[in-house]
Amino acid sequence: MVIIDKSRVHCLKVRCCHCPNALSSDIQLFRHGFFPASFNRPKTAFTFRVLDDFLLDNLECGTLVMNYYGKLQRMTSSMFPYLVPDQCRELMRVARQWRQLKTMKWHGFGHCSDDPKAGDLTLFCLACPQPGINMSMSEDDSFDETSSWKYTQSFVMDRNFKAEHLHPIKPHDEVWLSDGLGFMIVLELIIIPGIGLWHVHGHQDSCYVWYASNFIEGIGRIDREIMETLWAHLNLISPAAQRMS
């Protein structure tokens, strides 16, 4: 069996227990800190620490799977790295599964059989008004036009031209692990479109009349350019979303 660890790539003989009451081979590997690349007849396994190390490198250094596994091959054989078994595709798949399992664990689904619902794998926002959680509503509260601004959510959309997210070649082959469980969920909302005052002057003159926040009743003063403050950090990991040429 090919065992990929943080230190190097190992080729070892692994013998699982085949007693009458023994667990399946994949569960035995999990119990000993190994993530098998397949579950029926596993021939490749990754240690938990190498998966944690890759996710950290991918997040902080923008390291891609190919580059990270190339480093492991070089650590295994500095003279002949191409002779080391190439398990890059397996690491790409297992890393996605490992990230999904960690996310479910962090949000309280690690030791229960309940399936997460839409939006359950998101961080709790203390700033957003949420009735019954961080704001109290009495029976006397009414949603009239004068106070509706207090209960209105604002969604900001903008485009980052440095982050090139290309369409997949075969979208029907894509496997969604958390479709709708995170921030991108489908909601039936009444959306009032608008453009920030700093941004609207870069559009056509007609956009100012239709979408400037000065002419939207009850909109208040909000920071609609907040997305751009995140791009400096997101640009570090955005290359991981590109497909290879």
Q: Total number of β-strand segments?
A: 4
What are the low-pLDDT stretches, counting only 5+ consecutive residues below 50? none
Order of helices and strands: EEHEEHHHHHH
* Number of helices, counting only DSSP H or I runs of 4 residues or more: 7
User: In which range does the helix fraction lie?
Assistant: 25-40%
| Sheet of most strands | 4 strands, mixed
SS-based class: mainly alpha
Indicate the overall shape.
elongated
Q: Write down the overall mean pLDDT.
A: 83
Compute the separation of the termini in Å.
32 Å
The strand order across the widest sheet is 2-1-4-3
Radius of gyration: 25 Å
Strand content: 5-15%
Describe what this molecule looks like in 3D.
By secondary structure, this protein is mostly helical. It is built from seven helices and four strands; from the N terminus they run E-E-H-E-E-H-H-H-H-H-H. It has helices spanning 25-31, 48-60, 65-76, 88-106, 197-200, 205-211, 231-234, and strands at 2-4, 9-11, 34-36, 44-47. Helix 2 crosses helix 4.
Short description:
The chain is mainly α and 245 residues long.
